[in-house]
Fold this protein.
Amino acid sequence: MKTVFALDMIVKKDIVNELIRLKQEQFQRLMLEQKEKLENANLEDIDKGDLLESPRQQMMAEIELQATRVDGVKADIDTLKRIDLTKAYTHVAHGALIRANIGFILVGVASWSFVFGEQKVLGITTNSSLYKKMDGLKEHTEFHLGEIEYIIFDII
C-alpha cells in the first residue's frame, strides 16, 4: 500500500506536468500567432518620413512584443521542468506544492488558475505578494492577505 507521502508526490508530479502541458499549449499558440504576423507583414511598406509609424513598423513592434511573451512562456516551461518532484518540503519555498483552503498553490511560475481533478490550482512566483506572505510558513498555518483568509493544510 502506498504511503500518503508517495500519493502526495504523485499529485504534485501530475499537477506540475499538467501546468507544463498548459504552458506548452500557450507556447504553441503564441508561436503560431507570431508566424502569422510575420507572414502578414508587408515587406514592401517603406516609411516615407511620416510622423506616425508605418503599418510595417507597427507590425514589427507587435512581433517583438510577441517574442517577449514567447520567451517568457518558454522560461516558465523550463522552470517547471527543473522543479524537483522528489523533494519533500517542510515549509513554503520555491518548488513546493501547497494544499490550502483555496485549493493547490504551486510555487514556481505564475499561471491562471485551472482545475485539476476537482481542485483549483494556482501557480505563483516568488515575487508575488501571496508568496511573500507565505514564505517560510509551515503546515497548519493561517494567514490573511487582504480580505482573504488562507489556511495551509499540507506542503508537498
About this structure: The chain has two domains: 4-81, 97-155. Residues 1 and 55 are 64 Å apart (CA to CA). The chain has a mean pLDDT of 88. The first strand starts at residue 97 and ends at 100.
